[in-house]
Amino acid sequence: MLDTVIRNAQRLKKLSDNILDVTKIESNALNMSKEVFSLDGLVLDTIKDFEDSLKGMGIELEYRNLNNFECNVLADKTRIGQVISNMIGNSAKFIGKDGTISITVERKKRSDDDGVGNKDKDVVVVCVNDTGTGIDTEMLPKIFTKFASKSFQGTGLGLYISKKIVEAHGGRVLAENNNDGRGAKFSFSLPLENSG
Q: Which distant-in-sequence residues (6+ apart) come within 8 Å of 150 by Cβ?
């Protein structure tokens, strides 16, 4: 019974935190404390936070740094950790039991201009790929909007908040179903520090 109380208290705390974040976003008061840190290290720390609970569900977490590079970013470490957690948690909801969540980081060149002169600058792309049910085609166009959810476990605020956090850092978010029809892929990009 104590486990149930703790689990529900954590859900309530997350819900109230999300509502506060939405309020801050909409009033342009979401403050960012930017620092230079290793995105690689943050992803690994976030994976550790999920490992035990996902193992109990039969979900395996995999991680690869595709270019084997040092990916330092100038960003709000806590907020970017929140984005990674939201994406992993979202994937886990739609796997159910026995599946895989693969997380990769990759260095790429931004080929398009984002309006602030970031064309041809190096970005790091974090990709969370799962073997779940995929994104309902009806939900796909509105997946990053408020209260967009087909899950009974969430409020539909996590991905909306994640999008706003990433965009506040000059990055982009994407969601798509995998080509093989199994699972979905969520990714976000951030400018790399000193990628001039």
A: 136, 139
